[in-house]
Every structure is written in C-alpha cells, then in structure tokens.
Amino acid sequence: MSSTLIVGGTVVTASGTLDADVLVEGEKIAMVLARQPGLAVTMTADRLIDATGMYLLPGGIDVHTHMEMPFGGTFSADTFETGTRAAAWGGTTTIIDFAVQAKGTSLLATLDKWHAKADGNCAIDYGFHMIVSDVNDTTLKEMDACVEAGVNSFKMFMAYPGVFYATDGEILLAMQQAARSGATVMMHAENGIAIDQLVAQALASGRTDPVEHGLTRPPELEGEATSRAITLAKVANCPLYIVHLSARQALEAVAQTRDTGQNVFAETCPQYLWLSIDDLARPDFEGAKFVASPPLRPKDHQDSLWRGLRTNDLSVVSTDHCPFCFKDQKELGRGNFSKIPNGMPGVEHRMDLLHAGVAAGHLSLPRWVEVASTTPARMFGLYPRKGVIAAGSDADIVIYDPQARQTLSAATHHMNVDYSAYEGLEITGRVVTTLSRGRVVIDDGTYQGSTGHGTFLARGLNQYLL
Ligand code: URP
Ligand code: ZN
Ligand code: ZN
20, 32, 264, 359: which has the highest count of C-beta atoms within 10 A? Predict the structure, then answer.
C-alpha cells in the first residue's frame, strides 16, 4: 500500500478551514493533523506533496452529468472516458450520471447498458441516477430493483412532450413507488405542454433564432411546474429534488415549501449563475452554444440564485454537463431553434466558477465546499466515504491554488467539445493536483490518471430526509 503526505496546506471543509497536513494510505485518508506552533510531528510517506499556500478540498461531486447521452437526434459529445478525465482536470472526483430509459425498454436493461458504457472507462468514481420515461407496471416494480442496485434517485420530466415527458398521473405513481423505498424523485420542472404551444407560435410567425428558445420557455412556466411537482410530492409523501433550477419563481416555490418542513431540495448550475439570456441572443447563431433547458434567464435572476445558495434553499451546484459541438450538432437547429440539441458543457469548470463566486463575495469558502462536495455526498448517499477530508474517507483530494490566474477557453479545456461557454473569461483560482482514491490523476498541468481507475458507487439514501 503506498502512502502520500500532503503538507503545508489549508484544509477547507463545509464547517471551516484548518491548517493541517494530510496523510493518505492506499485509497483512504489515514490522518488529518492540525499544525500547531511549537509542535513538530514527523510523519513519513512514499510521496511528499508540498501544498504551501494551497487549499485542500474534498474532491468535487457533480451529481448531474450526461455523458454520451442520446438526445435531440444525436449524442452528447463526451464519453465516460473523455468526460471523467475533464472532470478530474477541474477538481471533480465523482460524477453521478443519468441512465436513460427509452420508451418501451426496461429500467434494469437500461442500467446494464449504462454500466457497460462506463465500466472500465472512467478516470474517477461514478454513480447513476435513472431517467424514467415510460411509467408502467414493470417500470414501477423495477424501481425497487434499481434501489437495491445502488441507484435510488429517479429523474422525471414535466418538459419534452413525446420524448421524456410524464403526465401528472404517471409522476404521482412513480413518486408513490419511490416513497415506499425512501428513494428521491428528481424533477425537470418546466411546463412542456404550454412551452410546445409557444414554440409552435414562434416558428409559425418566423421567429427561428436561438434566443427564441429562451423566450418560449418563460420563467413562470418553470415556477408553475415546480409548484406542481412539489404538490404531487406532498400527496405521495416522496422526497423531491428539483434539478437545474434557473428561475426566481421556481426558487420561491422551493423556499416556501422548505419552510413547511417538506422534503424538497434543489440544485442550480454555474451557467445560471454567470450567464444570461443575453448570451442566447448572440448574433450569427452563436446563441445556439447556450441552448439548454431550462434556458438562461434575464440577469436579474442571478442575485436570487446566489442568495438561495447562501440560505440553503439551493443546496447543491451541479453542471448538467451535456455537451454538443457547435459544428454539426448545434448546427442541426439552424433556421429552427427547436432543433438545436439542448445542453451545455461544464463538468470541467464547476469548481472554478464557484470559486469565482467566492472571490466575488457571493459565497464563503466553506459554503463553496459544501455546495460542491459535502452536500452532494449527503444528498445522494455517499457521505462520509465522499465529500469530506477526514480519516477513513476516500482520499479524493484537490489541491487548489486560490491565487493562480487562468483564462477559460476551448483551446485549453479537456472536454470533448469545440467551444467554451466561457470563452475568454479570466478567473482567479485553479486546480493544481487531483487525487482520486489516493491516486494522483492530475498534477501540475499533466494528466496522470488511467481509464478504468474509476469505480461504480452503489449509493445509500438521501441523508437529509426529515
Ligand atoms: O438542456 C439540458 N438540460 N440538457 C440535458 C437534459 C436535461 O434536461 O437535463
Ligand atoms: Zn433536465
Ligand atoms: Zn440534465
């Protein structure tokens, strides 16, 4: 068993900071030893890493990614291999990806298929949620088998009629089933039936540019769907997690409900914190790079989202990483915005973009770690194996230089996509070293990991249930 000693750094946890040295033995953290003036402790290890001036963070956990996802007539451009490598570059050491049930297929066959895609190909650890798109007796029974197999969160869609959309009745049935085993339903909350009418009206009147994607999905229809999902979850007594929350109206619904004690949680994503509908309105079809659902909102929603992160009405920041290249993929929607594949790249830059939020005064350092690692671990049944730097936890450790400057660009990123949504953005802070289960994956600008190092994580239940 090899050992690594990381000295001189500042450990950042969800509850504060600590000047401490960290000893890793094999795949686990063996000791976190606070440095005290006048107290010299000698430890030895096979490898010594000097982290003076650096933060030591628990590895980031991105609970919302879509690697090689079939969607919009094409596939998202990152495979499990390229996507998990890019994640490691950005200090993320665990992803939870979505297995996608196609209509007419079984959940368990779907799970097998996603295991086959990921097994032996990942640079970091991974788990799965299950997208339920065909609610029937078999599906409902199979939900329990998924929970047994360590997949206990089920995403459903109030959007995308004819693709993933589920009726309120189907959602209620799935929620009742999930509630019996303590599983969580994750909801894409947009009123897809109303949106489809607005889309048809826009196209009929010749409005075809990417910005129409945002204008035909108004924030009120996210607020309405969020409230409806909350009501259905209350009737079913089912834990509910709202994914990729983007609109103030949806946040208000979540906040009011959380005050009542109902098990309702929500995440947002960096693109909703830093980008806006102005990006969707970029000329010459450039706006297509920013087409995702829910859409980027007017700028004034951003302050509400940052506040929601501080008040914990938003508990998690994930990426909803679902990259489509501009060339040949986003271009499928030239002349018809509704044909632009929905999704944006992001898995590599979540930690950095949240650190930019710390630098801008939106979040405290501990809160950064909490929303990016610790809460995701607790929310999705991985804590304390993941999400914390403590003896006994997996040695998923990020050494982060808070003073380094970097410029985000497609020319330097590692995601398998031909554009960056943040092209040219200069930020302070960058990952220097990423360890996954004790193994150095990224070190000072070099990739040292290997495909197949990442293992599947069978997850326990949500640890926040009231
Ligand atoms: O536009 C998005 N968000 N694409 C990925 C699929 C989803 O709805 O999360
Ligand atoms: Zn979604
Ligand atoms: Zn998604």
Answer: 264
User: Ligand 1 pocket: which of 62, 66, 243, 330 to mutate (most atoms <8 Å of CB)?
Assistant: 66
Closest-CA residue, ligand 1 atom 3, reads 293
Joined tokens for residue 97 = 């990806």
The CA distance from 408 to 305, in Å, is 23
Q: Do the beta carbons of residue 217 and residue 190 sit within 8 Å?
A: yes
Beta strand pairing call for 446-447 and 439-443: antiparallel
- What percentage of the chain carries pLDDT values higher than 70? 100
Tell me the average pLDDT across 157-185. 98
Per-residue pLDDT of 290-329, as tens digits, reads 999 999 999 999 999 999 999 999 999 999 999 999 999 9
Residue from 106, 95, 109 nearest 61 by CA: 95
Note whether 4 and 438 are within 8 A (CB). Answer: yes
Residue 197 CB-density burial (10 A; 0-12 exposed, 13-18 middle, 19+ buried) = exposed
Say if residues 153 and 130 touch (Cβ distance below 8 Å): yes
Hey, which of 101, 130, 342 would you mutate to test ligand 1's pocket, going by the most ligand atoms within 8 Å of its Cβ?
Answer: 342
Q: How far is the CA of 438 from the centre of ligand 1 (A)?
A: 33
pTM: 0.98
